Amino acid sequence: MIAEKVLFLVLDGISDRPCEALNGRTPLMAAWTPVLDRLAAEGVCGIMDSISPGIRPGSDTSHLSLLGYPPQEYYTGRGPLEAEGTGIHMTAGMIGFRCNFATVDAEGRVTDRRAGRISGTAPLAEAIRENVDLSALGVGFRLESGAGHRAALALTGEGLGDKVSSNDPKKEGVQPLVIRPCTDDPADKKTADACNEFIRQSHKILYDHPLNVRRMEEGLPPANLLLIRGAGKMGAFPQFSERYHLSGSVISAATLISGIGKVVGLEHIPVPGTTGSVDSDLDAKVKAALGELGRKDFVLVNIKGADEAGHDGKGIQKRDFIEVIDTALEPLLSLEKTLIVICADHSTPCSIKDHSADPVPVVIRGPGVRTDRNTRFDEVSCAEGGLHRIRGCDLMPIVLDLINKSHKYGA
Ligand SMILES: O=C(O)[C@@H](CO)OP(=O)(O)O
Ligand SMILES: [Mg+2]
């Protein structure tokens, strides 16, 4: 039997390093994961460098690589991808940015890059849209909230450049940076000026916003500043259907991933109750994925919560969420004609609270797959598997071969 469909499940940042809180095991090793382990036992396993050994991937570059769009060729910045995911359609000349709703203290120092992992920021984005005015600079803008503390900004107007820095200091306890043009091109200066003005005006609006006043009364960090990064124009992406002759959908609460899916031509399927966090309704997500497999050839699903736990340095929370994921994946065991690919996009070790270049585990299970002797889905066990060590860009060719859609190289 040959698989007809592909379920491509990315467990965002699930891979880790040994955690002190878990007696030197990784969260995946420490978690009780009978479903993932059974899939590993029934499939072929390996470890994978999303981009290449030693390169620390962002979720943007890693997902592009996994989908067979080498970031070295296709990546034009995180901003435009994140913007598409929030529903901002990036047309020529627009400059996209990823934003964080963040907290600064009375001295202007960043005290939380994620404003206490705030959610429900739509009213804040709306207040900014209504009150910020960049017309004196000849610039318009669009701003949309994403999952959690995330949002996307797009600047519109004539003569805007995308070679600008970020105000995100990437750490706490210091002042946000001033956004600067990275070249002498007046277009980049225009963008940098518009960004700094946008940040200044939006800070005032956020500072007094009732939602933030209420948060402070409740002892929660207010979302009183926007950190913006990842400037870029939209690149050109060959469509998935042309590249692979597969129809596809993307299911992800994280707007970066739905944005990447959209730009390569996957249909975004929103699922109520999914949050991109550890409180997401994973049963609903799995149900939606199974529904999409009835309509489409390829379904990309991203589950984000383990990455957040890694960024927060919470090993025990990460282990516990992995067990929640495992339970939710139970319906996958009865899929027969579907090739199931499960991997991470990168490691997010709790010990460094950021992405690392450590390779991630990968399993491919489905009809026709030659299995190996590995029976556990974790970073160390999968290294013993039959796929050995592959790169993210190897994954789609392997998938296409297994579903009999790859072309012979040679005559
Ligand atoms: O969006 C996220 O989850 C992370 C990493 O991609 O970004 P940040 O560190 O700004 O929260
Ligand atoms: Mg990621």
TrEMBL record:
Span of domain Metalloenzyme: 5-401
Annotated InterPro entries: Alkaline_phosphatase_core_sf (IPR017850), ApgAM_prokaryotes (IPR023665), Metalloenzyme (IPR006124), Pglycerate_mutase_ApgM (IPR004456)
Family annotation (Pfam families): Metalloenzyme, PhosphMutase
Catalysed reactions, semicolon-separated: (2R)-2-phosphoglycerate = (2R)-3-phosphoglycerate
Isomerase in keyword set: yes
Gene3D superfamilies the record matches: Alkaline Phosphatase, subunit A
Top EC class, one word: isomerase
Keywords: Glycolysis, Isomerase
Gene Ontology molecular function terms on file: phosphoglycerate mutase activity
Listed pathway(s): Carbohydrate degradation; glycolysis; pyruvate from D-glyceraldehyde 3-phosphate: step 3/5
Listed EC numbers: 5.4.2.12
Keyword Cytoplasm part of the UniProt annotation: no
NCBIfam families: apgM, PRK04024.1
Functional description taken from the UniProt entry: Catalyzes the interconversion of 2-phosphoglycerate and 3-phosphoglycerate.
PANTHER family: COFACTOR-INDEPENDENT PHOSPHOGLYCERATE MUTASE (PTHR31209), METALLOENZYME DOMAIN-CONTAINING PROTEIN (PTHR31209:SF0)
Family note: Belongs to the BPG-independent phosphoglycerate mutase family. A-PGAM subfamily.
Name this protein carries in UniProt: 2,3-bisphosphoglycerate-independent phosphoglycerate mutase
Organism: Methanoculleus caldifontis
Lineage: Archaea, Methanobacteriati, Methanobacteriota, Stenosarchaea group, Methanomicrobia
Gene designation per UniProt: apgM
